[in-house]
Amino acid sequence: MVTLFHALGHLEELSYAERMKEAMLTGVSSKIWLSDLCTRTPEEVLDDILGQVLGALDLKSLEEEFAPEPAFHQDDRKSAEEVLRDDAEEDDSQQTSTATGQRWEMESPVDDKHIAAELKRRVRKDPEEVSRFLNENPAIAGRILSSPDVLEIYSYIRRRVDDNLRDAAKRYASRLIIKIAREIASAGAKSGNLHAVADYLASDEIEIDQTLERIVEQPTETIEDNLVVLARKLEEREACVVILDHSSSMQGMKVAIAALTAATIALHFKENYAVVGFNTRAVILKRIAQTVPPSRVAEEVLSLDARGLTNIKEALHLALGEIRTYEKKIGILLTDGNWTYGGNPRGVARLFDRLHVIGLEDPITPYELEHTGYGRYYTPFSGIKELAKEGRGMFAYVRTIEEVPLALRRCLASKVA
Q1: Are residues 125 and 36 in the same domain?
Q2: What is the mean pLDDT of residues 149-173?
Q3: Do the domain assignments include residue 163?
Q4: Which SS3 state, helix, strand or coil, does residue 36 take?
Q5: CATH number of the CATH domain containing 250
Q6: Does residue 101 belong to any structural domain of this protein?
Q7: Would you say residue 181 lies in a domain?
Q8: Domain span at residue 300?
Q9: Residue 90 lies in a domain
């Protein structure tokens, strides 16, 4: 945090207090873990702590004592806006984008919202350029990578940015995913029998009578210690495997959707679930007997490398092996296209009691609709739809993270006979 504070010294438009805040949020917020019952974010807690500390300091003296030496002449200092504009002008004069064959066009951003929009527009075409900008502008990077924009940017830049930025971005993305997953799991279909438990999730139900009895018996204990909830215990013979594609085309928001799906299933099934990842080969990310926090599951998925081909057949075989001893076998497959390696998986799909399939695709931008006609020629992949049919499951096509809750609720509501 001290290093970040000094690195921000050349930003003369920031006061001493503002630089302390930026350094603290960038360097420390990802290392703060709060109770699920806490309604405040780590950033809000740290801001409150900093406010109390600064209230006891003589800021004017500190400003004078630690005023940074100018790194360069004021006239030469460039803002983030100017850096992006200069990059665009240089790109126009020297080269074209290898991905599109067209020159970059850049509208001058004036705030974080505009900068984030421009970075998201560029990141699929030139992740190296976006990563360079984030590395050279840690204050702006800290703010953008601790906002919902991180879900779309993270997978493109995680191997290219500074380790501290990468770790902070992954932690924030994981926390955001878990927050959304809890909302989906809490609102999803509830099954199984109620039983009292000591630990609880937001979706569990409070047992009022027993809670009141414990408060009377233990008045000095906290509400959390006296709370008794009724969790729904799923049938022991039912298990679910999330099967996640991480081939070379799985980038951007598709990675966030995959992590969100895995975290939601972890919260819904609690114990009897596994996670399988696949590209050219398949691998078990979380075994059926392992106890792993949902946040760790989300981080594991966010850390997958997007590379290789799409071997759905091997992934389905591996998934079935994990739940072979369970009477009711459920699978949820996430992929962005048909199989390209390992053979036709339809025969394996029939071995599931329910195999749900969620098809993923990058959102179609207004530019693509207007200039490429992509939307007119786009049709869902018939192969993965057939897998859902063979597996007696649901099929949903998802392009944005906002469409995930409905797709998962449809899958979770589909009962095994």
Answers
A1: yes
A2: 90
A3: yes
A4: coil
A5: 3.40.50.410
A6: no
A7: no
A8: 238-413
A9: yes
Domains in the chain, number? 3
Segments in 124-206 forming alpha helices (H)? 127-136, 138-144, 150-157, 163-187
Sign, Cα dihedral of 115, 116, 121, 123 = positive
Residues with Cβ < 8 Å from 140, sequence gap 6 or more? 80, 112, 115, 134
In this prediction, residue 125 carries a pLDDT of 86
329 within 8 A of 323, measured Cβ to Cβ:
yes
CB 323 within 8 A of CB 288: yes
**248 and 307: one domain?**
yes
Whole-Å CA distances, 362 to 37, 246, 340, 373:
34, 14, 19, 15
Matching residue, tokens 């527009």: 121
Asked if 389 and 353 sit in the same domain, the reply is yes
Give pLDDT tens digits for 246-286: 998 898 889 999 999 999 999 988 889 999 999 999 999 99
- Nearest CA-CA partner of 359 in 383, 334, 379: 334
pLDDT, residue 25, reads 59
* 321 and 210 belong to one structural domain: no
DSSP 8-state symbol, 198: S
212 in the same domain as 264: no
Length of the chain (residues): 417
The amino acid that residue 22 corresponds to is: E
Residue 400 CA neighbour count, 13 Å, CB half: 7
> Which neighbouring-strand residues pair with 332?
242, 356
Compare 7 and 41 and report the one with higher pLDDT. Answer: 41
pLDDT tens-digit readout, 343-384: 999 999 999 999 999 998 765 555 555 554 444 444 446 788
DSSP assignment, residue 121?
H
Across the chain, mean pLDDT equals 75
Q: What is the pTM of this model?
A: 0.61
Describe the strand order of the beta sheet including 282-286 as a list of residue ranges.
Answer: 282-286, 273-278, 238-245, 328-335, 354-360, 395-398
The alpha carbon torsion through 414, 357, 275, 285 (nearest 10 deg) reads: 180
**Cβ count near 243 (within 10 Å):** 25
pLDDT at 99: 40
Specify whether 249 is located in the same domain as 298: yes
246 phi and psi angles, rounded to 5 deg: -135, 45
Cβ within 8 Å of residue 332, ≥6 positions away: 240, 241, 242, 243, 261, 265, 355, 356, 357, 358, 411
**260 and 218 fall within a common domain:** no
Maximum distance among all Cα pairs of the chain, rounded to whole angstroms? 77
Shared domain for 145 and 41, answered yes or no, is: yes
